[in-house]
Structures are given as C-alpha cells and as structure tokens.
Amino acid sequence: MTSVVARDRIRAPQRPGDVIFSTATVVAGSLILAVLAAVAGFLLIQSLPAFVAAPADFSGGFTNFWAYVWPLAFGTLWSALLAMIIAIPLAIGIALFISHYAPRRIAQGLGYVIDLLAAVPSVVFGLWGIGVLAPLVQPFYANLVDWFGWFPLFAGPVSGTGRTILTVAIVLAVMVLPIITALCREIFLQTPVLYEEASLALGATRWEMISMAVLPFGRSGIISASMLGLGRALGETMAVAMVLSPSPTVLFQLLTSQNPTTIAANIALNFPEAHGVGVNILLATGLVLFVITLGVNMIARYIINRRKAFSGAN
C-alpha cells in the first residue's frame, strides 16, 4: 500500500505544451512590468529639466512648473469626475435593462450597438461635440444660468458657443459609457440564478431582487468597470482638444466661456510647436498624468479588495 508520503511525491510529468505555456505567461507578465517601468523612467528622466526651468520657459506667465501644471491637473480631474457622474448611473441602468428587463432579441441588438459604440474613434466624438452637441445644448445652458445662476457651478456669463467643460464632460461620458456598460452587463449576467430565484420566491419584486442580489454580487465589478472608464476619461486627448475652449485657470463654473483644459489636450495642442525646455515641460505634465492614473488605479484596487469580503459573490 502506497504511503501518504509516497503519494505526495508522485507528480504528473511535465509536458512540453505546459512548459511553453507557463513560460509564455511569465514572459508576457514580466514584459508588461518592464514596459511600464521603461515609460516611467523615460518620463522621469526627461522631466528633470522642467522642475528647474526658468519662469521665461513657461507660457502664460507661470513662475514654476507646479504653478503651470496645477490648472491642467485640475481640469483633467474635474472633467473626468463630471463625466463619471453622468456615465456611471446611465451605464448601470442600461446594463440592468439588457440583462434583466429587455426581451432577448432587444437585449442582443442593444448589446451589439453598445459594443460598436466603443469602437468609434475619439475624433468622431469631437466632431459630434462641436457640430451637434454644443449648439444643441447652448440654449439649455442659458436657461440654467437664468434659473440657477445663484449656484456657483451654474454662475454666468454663459458661453455663446456651448463649448464648455460640461459639454466636454457629456462627450467623455458618451465615450466611456460603452466600456462601463459592457463590463457591468457581463457581471450582472454572472449573478447566480439561485440568488435571484430565492429572492423572487420570498416575494421580492424584480427591483428588490436586483438591489438585494444582483447589485451586491457585482459591486466589485462595477467599481472595476468604472475605473476602466475613468482611465479612458483621464487620458482622452482629441475630443477634449477639439471641443473645449481652454484657458490656464482653475474654475468650477460649468457654463462659462473660460474653461480649464486637461493635461492630454494641452500636450496635443502644444507639442508640435514646442522646442528645448518646452518639450521637457510637456513631458513632465505627462509624468503627472501618469502618476494620477496610477494613483487612481491603486485606490480602485484597494477599494475592490476591501469590499470583496462583503460581496455577494463570496
């Protein structure tokens, strides 16, 4: 009779396919880390001259790099935050409609449309924002200023073109909507049928079943999908550069003609004409965007790991 120790020593023979596959996965994972480290190192080395640049090297009358990059960082975070406030509730609602409310044929067709929307180039969204959205919402912006001008976010004077930070946020929300919706839809479809049937058997309505079973099960996935969408919003370039009328200021007003720009849009607009230390300054702002994106993803990972124990999946 084979002893327990002898059985523990018995191992399956290593097949060539297993060795090749495991080696390829290790190499691929290491390559990602190497590329990330190389990008971070390149940005850091190229950014060093910007940190000690003279005031004359900065456009707009800024005295140092941090005064120059602060309005850009603010515009990046502010526009992305507004976009996520608009996109996340819509994405969750659309995903729930596809997964739990719509008939199968309608759900399949709507799912295909959502997936195709994610493949639309950002320049098309920029053209749509300039030619369609901005003129369409400008009268509504004027009414908002008339009705709610006492509230700081809607204080005037209103932009005559509609090309404001709120318009950019709407464009970004439309751009990130397919990403969040597609992921949330797949997460909601993975909810164990036993959970749903048990809730309905106890007399819960469909919405009560969703709130008690589906949403708790997919909480971590919703956060992950939102962070992927946020990464797209933080790094978007062309749509913001085409729609926004930027100014190097920190403003919370949503409807005025003066609007803070983003780091990515500022790099895209100024890099072709930059030279000397100006190139290093733009690369340094790219480093700041890199750090912001990395920090946001680390915070999201911390939240997901913290909430995992409370998820219905566990």
TrEMBL record:
* A GO biological-process term: phosphate ion transport
For this UniProt entry, which segments traverse the membrane? 20-45, 65-98, 110-134, 165-189, 276-300
- Pfam family of this protein, just one? BPD_transp_1
| Residue intervals of the ABC transmembrane type-1 domain | 73-300
Which NCBIfam families does the protein's record reference? Answer: phosphate_pstC
List localization entries: Cell membrane
Membrane protein topology class: Multi-pass membrane protein
CDD domains of this UniProt entry? TM_PBP2
Q: Which SUPFAM superfamilies match?
A: MetI-like
Put simply, this protein is called Phosphate transport system permease protein
Q: What domain of life is recorded for the organism?
A: Bacteria
Q: Which GO terms describe its molecular function?
A: phosphate transmembrane transporter activity
What's a single GO CC term here?
A: plasma membrane
Per its UniProt record, what PANTHER family does this chain match?
PHOSPHATE TRANSPORT SYSTEM PERMEASE PROTEIN PST, PHOSPHATE TRANSPORT SYSTEM PERMEASE PROTEIN PSTC
Role played:
Part of the binding-protein-dependent transport system for phosphate; probably responsible for the translocation of the substrate across the membrane.
Name the family. Answer: Belongs to the binding-protein-dependent transport system permease family. CysTW subfamily.
**Main localisation:** membrane
